[in-house]
């Protein structure tokens, strides 16, 4: 009997690399394991903001978390094309990394500031179709001449599957709002960022809220705002948010090979 146990143990140990390889293959097929975010909202801290002297590049990395809907009720379409919703949104610890940097200096032929976006995923658009790009454009216009001319660089390390209903794009947009507010010292309030986020999309305000709870390198007035939370009830078109208790639990989700945009789903 002892020999059988010993053989079984050796077989399991020998099989470990194979199981790891199978696990990696599963991840490549968009099989994901994740956890919901607890009350702290973060499993580890993002890198501290990198501050350098004026005229040199300045950067900050923001964790852009995925989200799921724990419940979802959708009403009939409104005259403006939106559907009223009532849902519970939960942030996950699973995240993209969004690094935003700004380098001062006049850009020939550009209006004040140039936006350059790159990503580890070929599925991510690198232009104004990307909410991260549009978020940079939005805050650049709001900042006006209060911020010097220069180049905004957005680098996205993509882990959240694209077009999976996990708010990957919305989260990236929210991350850029947070990053530029911090880098440019715009001193926007938490409600200000929520309003700017709503201009980009219905899921963005929740991502702003969740990232405020989960990124310890953001300005203190954002991190400590009472509505910064990793779970919320969303009503209206999804932008009226009320924090709710967040529970930490493991979960597994699978992304099929097909991709469907949220807008297409709501249009039926």
Can you describe this structure?
This protein is α+β, with helices and mostly antiparallel strands. 33% of the residues lie in helices and 26% in strands. It has seven helices and eight strands. It has helices at residues 2-28, 131-143, 168-183, 190-200, 204-214, 220-223, 262-267; strands at 31-35, 58-74, 85-104, 113-119, 150-157, 231-235, 240-243, 250-254. The strands form two sheets. Strands 2, 3, 4, 5, 6 and 7 form a six-stranded mixed sheet that branches. A two-stranded antiparallel ribbon has the order 1-8. Helix 2 (131-143) runs parallel beside helix 3, helix 3 crosses helix 4 and helix 3 (168-183) packs across helix 5. The longest helix is centred in the N-terminal third of the chain and has 27 residues, at 2-28. The model is unreliable at 1-31, 39-45 and 48-56 (pLDDT under 50).
Helix and strand pattern: HEEEEHEHHHHEEEH
Helix content: 25-40%
Shape: globular
Quaternary assembly: single chain
Give the averaged pLDDT, no decimals.
82
- Secondary structure class reads alpha+beta
Distance between the termini: 61 Å
Radius of gyration: 21 Å
Number of helices: 7
Low-confidence stretches: 1-31, 39-45, 48-56
Number of strands: 8
Strand content: 25-35%
Characterize the main sheet: 6 strands, mixed
Write the layout of secondary structure elements.
Blueprint: H1 2-28, E1 31-35, E2 58-74, E3 85-104, E4 113-119, H2 131-143, E5 150-157, H3 168-183, H4 190-200, H5 204-214, H6 220-223, E6 231-235, E7 240-243, E8 250-254, H7 262-267
Parallel strand pairs: 4-5
Antiparallel strand pairs: 1-8, 2-3, 3-5, 3-6, 6-7
